[in-house]
Amino acid sequence: MAKSKSPSPSQNAPEDVLSSLEAILDEVAAERDARARLLSGMPAAAPNAKSKPAKAKTKAGKPAKPAAAPPAPEGAAAQIAALEAKLEKARTGLVNRDARIADLKAERDALRAEIEELRASRSWRITAPLRRLRG
Asked: Where is the composition biased (Low complexity) (predicted)?
């Protein structure tokens, strides 16, 4: 019976953990960037697009005067307060995400250091020929 050349789950466990941590970091960073774009007023679909609003001109070629703002509706103050609360909640979420990213990066770095320490150990070097024979 031929032996399988795939490593046992315990041998790839640190690499699997690192891969999954990096995937989580990428997802969290993408979500953070999307939220930051939303907070800054940039469209979420085009994060790198630098578009300038078109300026309206009159027949004489002079810039048109901006239209006067419509009168504020009665519930505008309540809407503004609700939007500001929502904005603050989003900012808090970003801070929490940044802290989670920092924690995950620290954990990833610690795992990488542990893997390097293991690979530099005497037992790892002594058993290297056995691992090469096994495939």
From this structure: 39-51
Question: Which DSSP string do the residues of 7-59 spell out, in sequence order?
Answer: PPHHHHHHHHHHHHHHHHHHHHHHHHHHHHHHHHT--SS-TT----PPPPB-T
Residue in 30, 63, 34 with CA at minimum distance from that of residue 47: 34
CA distance 2 to 76: 75
CA-nearest of 27, 35, 41 to 95 is: 35
Tell me the two tokens of residue 52: 């300038």
Tokens of 56: 């309206």
CA 33 to chain centre: 6
Show the tokens assigned to 36: 């930051």
pLDDT, one tens digit per residue, over 74-126 is 778 888 888 899 999 999 999 999 999 999 999 999 999 999 999 999 999 99
Length of the chain: 135
Token representation of residue 39: 């907070």
Nearest to 17 by CA among 96, 114, 88: 114
pTM of the model: 0.42
